[in-house]
Every structure is written in C-alpha cells, then in structure tokens.
C-alpha cells in the first residue's frame, strides 16, 4: 500500500479519518477487507467490541472472539449485495464473518441457500466451508455497537468503507438489498455519493420497496430493494417470515441477473 500522499503521512488506525483516507486507496476487496479489520477509528465501538471479546458468553467460553471490525463476505464479482446493520456482539464480533453465528444470520443464510445463493443453509464459523454465489453480505458499520445502535457520528466515520466496497463491486453490481430501515438509510447516501442519481427526497423504506437507479456515465443501472431485517424481533413476531425473505431474495437475484435455481429448503 502507498504510505505517502498529498495530505502527508497516512493517519493511524485510531484516527477518525483513517477510513476516509485508506478506503479510497484500496485496489481490491481483499485489500479493503484487510484495512477494515485493523480500523480503530471509533473509540466507543473499539472499547465495546474488545470488552465483549474479553467476556464471552458462557455458551462461547471456548471461543477466541474476533473482537475487531468485521469485513464483508462474498465474492469480489458479486452482482447482488445485501447490506445489513452492524455485526452482533456475540455473532460476527465472535466469529469474524458477517452475519455468522447469530440468529439473524441463521435466518438470512438459510434463505440465501433456499434461493440457490449459498452453498449451505448454516453459518457457524469462518472456516465452515460456506460459499456465497454471486452475492456479498456487508454492513454500513463494521464494528458491533452497544445495543446494536451506532451513533450518527460512528455511521459517518464508517461510511467510506461501504462506499469503497460498492465502488469495487460496481462494474458487475446490479442489485442491492437493504435490510431494515437503518440499512436503507445508510445505503442511499452512499449510492448517491458513488454517482448513482438517488432521488431527493429519498424514497421511504418498506419491505418490498424497489428503487431503480438508472445508469450514468460512470455507473451501470442498479436496483435497490428494501427488506425487513431478519432480527429476532421481526422473525419471532412473524413480521418477516422465511417465505417473505425467500421471495424478496428471489426477486433480487432475478434483478441482478443471477441464474435461477430450484427452491431448496434448509
Ligand atoms: S465502526 Fe467502522 S469506522 Fe468505526 S472503528 Fe469500526 S470499522 Fe472503523
């Protein structure tokens, strides 16, 4: 990586401009993922993720928690991106892989498998062999926040990572699913900054909401879909059922041009 630049030496990993400085310099997703994983730009989230890692839940006391930012997961030529909220304290923050090891991820990966976008319906740890086909799962905030609530300042600090990830995916990216209102609200400004003509006022979030962003000189056309987040609050109450999520992901896969496969049950 280039260690010099017009603004002088690169910031330390714990400086607030580390993401903005480093993200745009990454030439590929592997490099970006490595830079994300060493970010310490949000003091409150760094303290939280490390405190949680130092005090595992009883069920996970044999685990060595990841305790760092969790990069996106999936192939670098994905045509479909799924954008969530942030890693869970004892999920992604434990396993080091997005949506892996928590109930939301169990629901999401089972649905991706049912649509033919994942090699298996379960995700338990980084080396479990799970592969995603044509889809990349990521989040606008890469560190587990207390009570799953990042502050506006933390969201803004982390935004360059998602912007760079979508930029690197953009040659082949055709559709994005935003999970929950937070994912939707976090995603649209990033897409606007990346060059897609996002209308103002920004369209409201809803399950099944679709936003077609036309191609511009720099970008191919992109379809944005809203889905309720597969949190237990939504899945336990039936607000989001498995069939609803499968139907939405099937629609997203079609819009992304991904091959159709026979429905599979977990
Ligand atoms: S939330 Fe994002 S910007 Fe903040 S420390 Fe984690 S990776 Fe860095």
TrEMBL record:
Name of the protein described by the UniProt record: Type-5 uracil-DNA glycosylase
Keywords: 4Fe-4S, DNA damage, DNA repair, Hydrolase, Iron, Iron-sulfur, Metal-binding
CDD domains from the UniProt entry: UDG-F5_TTUDGB_like
The keyword Acyltransferase is assigned to this record: no
Domain of life: Bacteria
Uracil-DNA glycosylase-like domain location: 71-249
Pfam families xrefs: UDG
């Amino acid at each position: 990586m280039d260690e010099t630049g017009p603004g002088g030496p690169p910031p330390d990993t714990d400086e607030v401009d580390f993401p903005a400085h480093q993200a745009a310099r990454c030439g590929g997703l592997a490099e970006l993922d490595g830079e994300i994983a060493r970010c310490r730009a949000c003091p409150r989230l760094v303290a939280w993720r490390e405190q949680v890692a130092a005090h595992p839940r009883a069920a996970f006391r044999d685990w060595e928690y990841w305790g760092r930012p969790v990069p996106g997961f999936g192939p670098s030529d994905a045509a479909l991106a799924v954008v969530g909220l942030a890693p869970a304290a004892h999920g992604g923050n434990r396993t080091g892989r997005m949506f892996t090891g928590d109930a939301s991820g169990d629901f999401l990966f089972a649905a991706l498998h049912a649509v033919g976008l994942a090699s298996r319906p379960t995700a338990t740890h980084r080396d479990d062999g799970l592969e995603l086909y044509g889809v990349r799962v990521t989040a606008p905030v890469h560190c587990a926040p207390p009570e799953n609530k990042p502050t506006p300042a933390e969201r803004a600090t982390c935004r360059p990572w998602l912007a760079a990830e979508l930029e690197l995916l953009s040659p082949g990216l055709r559709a994005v699913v935003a999970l929950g209102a937070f994912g939707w609200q976090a995603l649209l400004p990033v897409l606007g900054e990346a060059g897609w003509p996002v209308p103002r006022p920004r369209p409201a979030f809803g399950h099944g909401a679709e936003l077609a962003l036309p191609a511009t000189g720099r970008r191919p056309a992109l379809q944005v879909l809203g889905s309720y987040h597969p949190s237990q609050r939504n899945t336990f109450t039936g607000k989001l059922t498995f069939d609803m999520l499968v139907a939405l992901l099937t629609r997203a896969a079609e819009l992304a041009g991904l091959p159709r496969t026979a429905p599979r049950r977990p």
